[in-house]
Amino acid sequence: MQRKQTTRSFVYLTIGLALLFYALPRVPHVTGSLEGAFTCVWLGFAMLIISSNLYYLIGVDKERQDWKMKRHAWLQRGMRDLQRGYFNEAKREIRQKKQRRFMS
To answer: Structural domain boundaries of the chain?
Structure first.
């Protein structure tokens, strides 16, 4: 499934670039008229298509998901330790070490 989506994204990126390079010399110049507005909107949509497919192909989504999963696991571990009382034991051990150091 992952390979199919990657292939599809690559094909869409190629089509978007081809469309952009084919149409760029043919679109009207950017002016204050309706034609200029059409050119700006059309170029904006073309860049949106190209950038979204590049975003997927580069794999930014995967990195972000990995980071979120690691963060979620870390938070879950912290909550589990808090519920079990590990932090209280750790504080008690630190206090005892300080007292031993003070007593010696």
So the answer is: 1-58, 60-104
Tokens of 57: 């192909």
Please state, in angstroms and rounded to a whole number, the distance separating the CA atoms of residues 90 and 21: 64
Q: What is the pLDDT along the chain (104 residues), one digit of tens a residue?
A: 677 878 888 898 899 999 888 888 888 777 788 888 888 888 999 999 999 889 888 877 677 777 778 888 878 877 776 666 666 666 777 777 777 777 76
Give the residue carrying structure tokens 């870390």: 74
Using alpha carbons, select from 65, 62, 43 the residue that is nearest to residue 5. Answer: 62
Q: How many residues does the chain have?
A: 104
**Within 13 A of 10's CA, how many CA atoms are on the CB side?**
8
